[in-house]
Amino acid sequence: MSARLVIDESNQLKEANTELENGPQPGVGWPAKIISVIFHPIFVPVYLVYFLLHTHDNLFASFTPWGKTKVLIMSILMYAFFPIVTVLLLKGLGFIDSVFLRTRKDRIIPFVACIIWYFWIWHVWRNIPEPGYPREMVLFAMAVFLTASAGFMANIYMKISMHALAMGTMLALIIYMAFTQGVSYGLYLSAAILVAGLVCTARLLVSDHAPREIYVGLLIGMVSVPVAHYFT
Fold it and tell me: Where are the chain's structural domains?
């Protein structure tokens, strides 16, 4: 697989993959696009909240069924609904060229908006009165906030993969839970590794990301969880 240098939208040299430049191989493009949509970064935090709510009854022993539902609704609003509305408004007002955020410039305001939403939900969960939210939920919210913040900074230097950021956070959280919970995590960990591999491969196939933008995004997401653990 050959590689060469090309000039990106910011007039900087970057490594491009010649084969991927011509598009994915027949029969691969659509599955890769479907995977990219299903595991879009705005959906991954919601999936993780749902996972924690329904596989760790011990963490939510003090929560009523409606209490759990409210947690999920709040997650959907802050992690998915408000970011989607923000991007649609930005597109409608002409601040971005595409809702797909294909350039680093288009990603600046959405990153800032998401950082605000993610900080807010972490702040709320952290300050809920006793008995409060489980520490794992607060740690998770902080990790998502840190990932978005680091991704925003990385976007200055490269078009960091948002999918890889989300996959790194997901994978690190599952690993963290495997070490701290009394639940067998073999199946969950295997599934997380498989999903992370599929999503990152899909982004290499159907996006214009250079491999380093995938790898750096994955690394940033994974580092966010131990950092959040340190500060939580």
Answer: 27-231
* Cα–Cα distance, 171 to 188 (Å, whole number): 10
Of 4, 6, 10, 40, the C-alpha closest to 156 is 10
Tokens 């990153």 found at = 111
Pseudo-torsion of CA 205, 211, 215, 216, nearest 10°? Answer: -120
pLDDT tens profile 45-78: 999 999 999 888 888 888 889 989 999 999 999 9
Alpha carbon 113 to its chain centroid, in Å, reads 14
Residue 131 preceded by cis peptide, ω within 30: yes
pLDDT tens profile 146-190: 999 999 999 999 999 999 999 999 999 999 999 888 778 889 999
7 alpha carbon, distance to own chain's centre:
27
pTM of the model: 0.86
